[in-house]
Amino acid sequence: MKENLISKKELLEVMGISYGQLYRWKRKNLIPEEWFIKKSSYTGQETYFPKDKIIERIVKILSLKDEVPLDDMADYFTHKKINKELTSEYILSKGVVQPSSLYIYKSFNRSTKEYEFYEVIIMSVIERILMIDGFKEIYVEDSVKMLMENKSMLEENNVMLIGIAKNENFIPFIVKEYSAVAFPNNFKEVFKINISLITEDIKMKLFN
């Protein structure tokens, strides 16, 4: 899957930011090193970025910069492990998920009042699956099982959950974003969920 790229010059113009701001955010780990893609050009070498991701990230930075110190903001965007256990009450009070999503997760896994961070990610994924057109219960059942079996991947960078279906058959799988994916014959994609973006969103809601 080919990435849609944007040059550094165009990015600065489109977003109305300076060279200094861009590289300060890089130093603060708000923008990952791997997003700075070097390519040869007639002038020597040019820097490009994955367009959709960098624009979305800069919009978030600009929206938060007057309220959240840059050093704290980095915790939202870097996939540092969150070791703190979170109560049901705290999760719901921060609006991370609806009570129904938390209840469904508990029915699949365990009834408790405290959760690890990866479990909150799964709750949020459940919420998104429930909103899919043509939703079926098997989408949640098999996806939760897959996520639980691969929980160590959930806080890595650029992780996607993809669900494909054919008649009554459904297969969920986890891939690195922008990986090339080939489906079995006659299967169609029924959802694609960016877990890394969900992780950022959860951190901003929980710890802001």
From TrEMBL:
<dbReference type="Pfam" id="PF13171">
    <property type="entry name" value="DUF4004"/>
</dbReference>
<protein>
    <recommendedName>
        <fullName>DUF4004 domain-containing protein</fullName>
    </recommendedName>
</protein>
<dbReference type="InterPro" id="IPR025063">
    <property type="entry name" value="DUF4004"/>
</dbReference>
